[in-house]
Amino acid sequence: MANVTRDLVERASPDQTALITIDAARNRRVWTFGELADGARATAARFAELGVGRGDVVYTLCGSRNEWVLTMLACLRLGAVMAPCSPMLRADDLRTRARTAEPRLVVAGDRHLDVLAEAGLDGSVLPLSAWDIEPGAADVPPAQDLPDDDPAFLLFTSGSTGTPKPVWHGQRYVWGQRLQAEHWLGARPGDIVWSTAAPGWSKSTRNAFLAPWLMGAVAVLSEARFDVEQRLATVRAEGVTVLCMSPTEWRMLLAAGEPPALPSLRRLVAAGEPLDKETIAQWRAATGLTIADGYGQTETGHIAGSPPGSDAPQGSAGLPLPGVGTRLHDGELQVDAATLPTLSLVPDTDLVDGRWWPTGDLFEQDDDGWLFFTSRADDVILSSGYRIDPVEVETALRGHGAVRDCLVAGIPDAQRGEVVAALVVVDSDPPEDLAAVLQRHVRAVTAPYKYPRVIRFVDALPRTTTGKAARDKGRELLRA
Prior knowledge:
The chain is of the alpha/beta class. The chain has 15 helices and 24 strands.
């Protein structure tokens, strides 16, 4: 029995720096653990006045702000369940979530009030403009002693291959993050850690500040939307030592020019989607640091990652975390549920043989144990009897200098069953022969039968609310 807020935050040294927040107007504040503890107690008291208790669900729709942090800590203190929502969600998205769990309270930025009303969720909203919670509340509820399997978070899968699915995580999810924080994120006492994922990503829930705190590090939280110059300026100004970004963000920084000088950095980390070899090579050449890729799911938390100090093969998703049992079953990565402390609260009926969690992702593994993602089991393209991995074709396309981003999927074909098709983003208007040039390029770097027979140039790829490339939507565009 434990309580995350009490045992991790309130019992920390009150003068120790815990968090640096930067709002959209670039207002900066440094928070000590003592200030966060006081704020969490006051927020818990206010939530209790609004009827929030153990087991109740609290939505957040407010971006990477200090109120988001205090809401999470208040929920963990009360035993309430926090459901962080992406600020990009629309009314239909919110209604889908509400069918899983009706919120007792929604903490929301004022710009989201209209969409909440449209979704029918405006009955119990605490707008940020009414956030008048100050330390010193008289009736602070006691911190709940909570078992490991008591619900703590309601997350939703990204929806990159279908309708987002609800995922319930227990209190053990927080304490279990120490494993990946040490062996993948690589945070150490004294580090300044910035995990840039916005609320709504499961990675943000576990890595924005919880994982750094478990390792004695300081976390950075910025509300600003992605901007190359602002991102670099923040890294320099705050002296960030561990930077965790999505592969898309690492590529976008490269698209703006040569990798910049960022002398404070000692560790680069990525997760969320496969990271291509070319991006890793360019950052390594510029900084001497290798981006440590990792792999996990909303349902599982982190399963594998490139450990600090390791020489990971380029393109690898890492090694299974220490103590985590894995196997490849017909190419699918499966995880021994009993060995993964961050596995969601799944029923035994969801496990293979009552033991193995099926990830639905296909991997290869070399003799040293390094894992290499190939594709989703349901994304494999079957063309003229060939099984074609769309990620391999995407990697080949990104190896051409004209390609900024791409998405590959199979589309129906009367003769071949399916053919390979690609949405391609370039930096300027493509010349008439660029499609043929890219087809020849793919044929030259991989098996010729894998080249995209259909190429469509687009200004941007379709993405989910958490920023991942939406393969289902891409497939629909290619079929249109």
